[in-house]
Structures are given as C-alpha cells and as structure tokens.
Amino acid sequence: MSSVSGGRFDAAWLPVEAFRAVGVRRVGVRGEGGVVESVRREVREVCGWFGGREVGGGEAELVLEVGEVGLGDEEFLFEFDGERAGVRASGGVGLLYGFFHVVRLGEGAFEGPVRSELHSPALPLRMVDHWDNVAVHPVMGQVERGYAGGSVFWADGEARGDFGRVRAYARLLASCGINAVAVNNVNVHAVEARLLTERIGEVAQIAGVLREYGIRTHLSVTFAAPIVLGGLTTADPLDADVREWWAGAVRGVYEAIPDFGGFVVKADSEGQPGPFAYGRSHADGANMLAAALAPYGGTVHWRAFVYDHRQDWRDRTTDRARAAYDHFAPLDGEFAEGAVLQVKHGPMDFQVREPVSPVLGALPRTRFAVEVQATQEYTGQQRHACWLGPMWSEVLTFRPHGEQGPSVGELASELVAVSNVGDDPFWTGHPLAQANLYTFGRLAWQPSADPLDVLDEWLRLTFGDGDLGGLRTLLAGSWAAYEKYTAPLGVGFMVQPGHHYGPSVDGYEYSPWGTYHFADRDGVGVDRSVATGTGYAGQYGPPWASVYESVESCPDELLLFFHHVPYGHVLKSGKTVIQHIYDTHFEGVEEAEEARRVWAGLKGVVDAERFARGAERFEEQVRSAREWRDQVNSYFFRKSGVPDERGRVIY
Predict the structure, then answer these.
(1) Closest CA to 148 of 355, 376, 335
(2) How do strand 85-89 and strand 62-66 relate by DSSP bridges?
(3) Cα–Cα distance between 528 and 490 in angstroms, integer?
(4) Could you give the CA distance from residue 174 to residue 635 in angstroms, rounded to a whole number?
(5) pLDDT one-digit tens code per residue, 359-375
(6) Does the pLDDT value for residue 532 go beyond 70?
(7) For the Glycosyl hydrolase family 67 catalytic domain, which residue ranges apply (predicted)?
(8) Which of these, 35, 197, 325, 553, could form a disulfide with 539 (CB 3.0-4.6 Å)?
(9) What is the pLDDT of residues 171-186, one digit of tens each?
(10) What residues contact 574, with CB distance under 8 A and at least 6 apart?
C-alpha cells in the first residue's frame, strides 16, 4: 500500500509515484512563512525519494517562488520557458497550490510549448463540513452519517494526541484545493458545545496543524449557547445580553485561533434550537452572529435546511420540498455581509436524483454556499461505488434563469461538502470513494470543469499511467447505475428508516418526515404542480417553472418528483413508467455485476490490501442491488398488477 511519510496512512491520490517528475529534478524554493515551509518540506521529501535535490540560483529545473507578483493569496502563475518550469505566487498558499499543480501535471509540467498560465479559484471558500462528535454519541456514533470509521480529529472524548493523521489529511485537502474545514457536527451536543469556550484550546491545536496547509478552521455551534454555556435565560438574537455574550465568546475564540474562519449553524431544524422560539427571523439569528464575527473577518454559515419534520402524512398540502424557499427566499437582502446562507443542492435531502433547489436562483442579494454530500448517506454509504462528480456538475452548471443566465456555480459564493472521511485505513471506507472528495475539491476550484477530466486526474494520480479504461468506465457510470437499481424517476427515499441503507419502499411513507411517493393502485409520484398540487414547481422562475409544471415537458428523470402519473404513462423514452421501473432495476443489477467483474480484473494491478477492500465492497454492492431490484419491482408489480413485458422473475 502506498503511503505518506511515516507509512501509517493510505496516501489516496498522493502516492509516492505521483511525485516522481518533481523528485528527480533540481528544485528551488524561495520564500518564507509557515505554508512555504510545508512546500519546502514536500520538496525535500520527494527529492529524497527519487534522487533530486533542493538548489538555489539559476541551476533549478523547477522554481517555486513567493514574491511581489500582484496576485491574490491563492492564485499562482505556472510558467514553462522550454527548459525550466516555475510557479510564482504572492503568498505561501498560492505556492502550495502551484506545487500540487505541478504534481498533477507530472512530466507534462516540463514538456510542451512555452506558456504562462494564471490559475485562480473560482470560489473563495471551498469547505468540508465534518459531522464528527467529540464523544461517541449513543445513536449516531463517532461520526453522524459517517461510513469510514471514527473521527480524524477526535478520539476518546478529546482531540487526538497524535496529529500525524490530521496533517496527512490537511495535505490531501490542500492538494485538491480545499481551504476550510468545520471540525464538528452541525447537530451540536452538550460536549461539542463546549468547544466554543473552555475547550477551544483543543480546536486551536487542530487549527495549528491545518494552518500548515492553508486551511482555516470553522466550528459548528449551538444557537442556544448563551443558555447552555453562559447561564442566560434566553438566546433571543435581539437581546442585548445575548449579543454581548456572543461578542465575548467570539473574542475568546480569536485569541486562541487568530485566523479562525467562523461558525456553522443548524437552527430551527430537526429539533435544533433557533430564532423561531423568540419570534425572530433567520436573518435576525444569522446577523447577530455575523456582527460578533465581523471585527475579526469571520463568517457564519447559516444552513437553510429548515422544514417541518413532524408532518401529518395525510396532509398533501404540506410539502417538505417547499420549505427552504418558503423560509429563505422572502429574506433575500436581509442577511449581513458576514452571513452565508448554506443551501442544499436539492430541495429534499441529498437523494440520488433531485431537481436543483429553487433557492439557488432566488437570492440575488444574499451570499450563499451550495452544500453537497460527499458522504454517501443515500447513495450507497461508501459500500457501493457511486462517483458523484456528474451529479454535482449538473447542479453547478444548471442555469436557474435559463440558458442566457448565469450558472449556479457562477451565482454561488462558496461550495461546501459534508465530509466522507474517517480514520479508516483508506480514509473513505471504499477506496473508490476517495474520488468523491477529490472531485469536490477540484469542482469547487473550477465549477465549470468537466468532471470526467477530474476523474482522469484522480485515476492517474492514484493508480498511475497504466490501462485504467475499465475502471474509468465503471466509475463514470456508477451514479447512473446506482440510480437504476434504487429509487426511480426522481421519486426519492424508499430507504430503511433511520440508518438509510437498503430498500424499504414504504419505509417513510406514513412517517412525519415528509418524504412520500404516494404510490397506489393507479399510479405513483408527488403532484407538485401549481395547477393541482403543492405549488412547488412555481418556486422556479422561467423557463423552469413551466417545464416542471407540465407532465409533457418535465424531464423523465424528475417526473415522479413533480407529478403523480399512471403506471401506463408513456415516457419520452417510449416506455411506460412501470416498464421503466422493471427494466432499470434489472439493468442496475447487471451493471453492478459488471463493476464487480472489472474490479476483479485489477487483481495484481492495484495493491493487495486495496484490492481486497474493494472486492469485499463490490460483493456487498451486488447483493444490495439485487435486494433493491427484487423489493422495488415486486412492490410495484403488486401495486399495479401490470406484469413485466419481458417475463422476468418478479416475486
């Protein structure tokens, strides 16, 4: 197994071989500062591996230099004059990103035409949110919705004593352009609440390691902190004592962590406290925290995941999909500059297929971050190979106001992902799930990038330059394959309640969570039209409102999200809804079996430990895909009474 220095952790996409083109050369590093020292340490290590050396003067084949070049902190110039390659930056972070750019290019950095290229991130903040608990939670464990072991940051109720793994993780994040990390769960429990005050020293230790790689630390906090920690009787955001308490708490944070990034807040959602308890708006709550952070340049990321989770399933007028827009679109323009509204990319909850949230086109006067989920809560939980690059790219390139308008990636201020990393030897449980973290970072740097190009980058860095065509095909089609054998045509959920792994078609159908498919003997789907349904389709502007309003114009892949239709409704593909359900579920299993076969063919090509882990995961994926197929097909056969026209076995 390839590893980073020390040999203790899987190197993911930074194995030793990825650095060969740098390490065999004479390299000069010029500049001072903590992050520059990280670059210098990288150079010395790779030269030690491959026989290159750090030099000064004009003999260098690669020059990495910090100087007065008039660039932003994270920008860099990559230059090749036909003989020497160079990276120039105004600061250490830009130099670090430039160094990893050279690593990605490999020998290509020292070949080809003379060129000078400016590289700039499209989004200023590219953050990973960890849903990590300091103490193991009796229900959610160490990491809520974590599928790769325990926390990278916390162990035995406190910050890890050995920060080697944190440093290795920071290196991985920086190499793909991620520059911010929230280190604890958005569902803030009693232990985690105290990270804000008497336990801020532990956060500062973690921040010190992340800082070496240009990463700023953020903290999830409870809105009720003035009560929980401060002994006040209220958390009313307009109360003077509350505001004073927050100002003091923030001052203490910045005394411990001068470059602290800010807070992440989940409020009035799924039982978390918030401003609604005091008759205040979410703008009131966010702006109070923004005011406390403003003197230090910090920001509050205020999550827009607010909805009624005690819904009456018999009431078809209440629609969870509407909630974020109904709560936050009317507040556009009321949020302070230091408040960032963090909006899930779809209106529900990270399903395998959702429309792009209409909120992302309804905030012209508000800073917002698009939140995606790298941890595969509803997409196989890192037991299934499901590369999410195509999904995220569809969101980021979606144009809420039509083809002539800007894309979501152009409208957004930031991009945030829920982490898929833990203390598992392979970081992400399934070795191929590492591709999701890498792809997130690269798309956050450039939302318009072709995700397949990013996948090729990851494959080359991780596995080298051999024939990886089969593995590329496997991953490129894995999201579509997962969709085929799970929930059809955008209907969503159909999962086991609670842990969300495996099929349960009616698992949430009569629950208070608002996640319904409304299948009956005549048809399936949720009517979200303006004319006859919940009106959700009307939350979009033109042209999308009219596209989604009509059964005829609604895209097939979202049909059941927007409409309740008969089983005999003919899709644009020419198939009926019921036959589509049957066919895709059989196809999905076949594609899972083919993916298993492709991985089996890599025995001896990838290292033995990685191969064994992948083989075990693909066996589980095939088993689960078959279970999905049989349960979903049997359910709809029994509901509809319509047989499979191809006569396959349906129970």
Answers:
(1) 376
(2) parallel
(3) 13
(4) 46
(5) 999 999 999 999 999 99
(6) yes
(7) 118-427
(8) 325
(9) 999 999 999 999 999 9
(10) none
**Six token digits for residue 631:** 């349960």
Say how far apart CA 417 and CA 415 lie, in whole Å: 7
| CA-closest candidate to residue 346, choices 382, 388, 404, 290 | 388
Pair of tokens at residue 443:
């798309």
Separation between Cα atoms, residue 463 and residue 476, nearest integer Å: 16
Calculate ∠ Cα 243-248-252, nearest 5°: 145
Dihedral angle sign, alpha carbons of residues 130, 131, 137, 138: negative
Whether 165 and 422 have beta carbons less than 8 Å apart is answered as no
Token pair 């203490």 is at which residue? 252
Query: According to the model, what pLDDT value does residue 56 have?
Result: 84
Give the tokens for residue 369: 């971050």
User: For 87-96, what is each residue's pLDDT tens digit?
Assistant: 999 999 999 9
What's the rounded Cα separation, in Å, for the pair 267 and 303?
A: 7
* Position 145, amino acid: R
Could you say which DSSP state residue 16 is in? G
Count the helices and strands in the chain (H runs, E runs): 20, 20
The answer to whether 86 touches 105, Cβ cutoff 8 Å, is no
265: three-class secondary structure by DSSP: strand
Q: Which amino acid is located at 224 in the chain?
A: A
* 8 A C-beta contact, residue 195 and residue 203: yes
Q: So what's the pLDDT on residue 8?
A: 59
The verdict on whether omega for the bond into residue 543 sits within 30 degrees of 0, i.e. cis, is yes
Q: Please provide the DSSP assignment of 548-612 as one string.
A: HH-TTTS-GGGHHHH--EETTPBPTTS-BHHHHHHHHHHHHHHHHHHHHHHHHTTBTTB-HHHHH
In whole angstroms, give the CA distance from residue 208 to residue 57. 32
With CA atoms as reference, report the closest residue to 120 among 154, 167, 168, 69.
Answer: 69
Question: What is the rounded distance in angstroms from the CA atom of residue 99 to the CA atom of residue 84?
Answer: 14
* Catalytic annotation, residues: 270, 349, 377
Buried b (16+ CB within 10 A) or exposed e, 83-122: ebbbbbbbbbbbbbbbbbbbbbbbeebbeeeeeeeebebb
Residue 596 has pLDDT above 70, yes or no: yes
Length of the chain: 651
The mean pLDDT value of the chain amounts to: 96
Residues 6+ positions from 597 with CB-CB distance below 8 Å:
none
Helix (H, G, I), strand (E, B) or coil at 426: coil
Residues in contact with 573: Cβ distance below 8 Å, sequence separation at least 6, in sequence order = 556, 580
Q: What is the mean pLDDT of residues 104-125?
A: 97
Domains of the chain: 16-119 (3.30.379.10), 125-423 (3.20.20.80), 484-526+564-640 (3.90.1330.10)
Q: Tell me the C-alpha distance between 91 and 429, whole Å.
A: 35
| Rounded Cα gap, residues 293 and 262, in angstroms | 7
Q: How far is CA 21 from CA 178, 184, 242, in A?
A: 24, 38, 56
d(CA 509, CA 246): 42
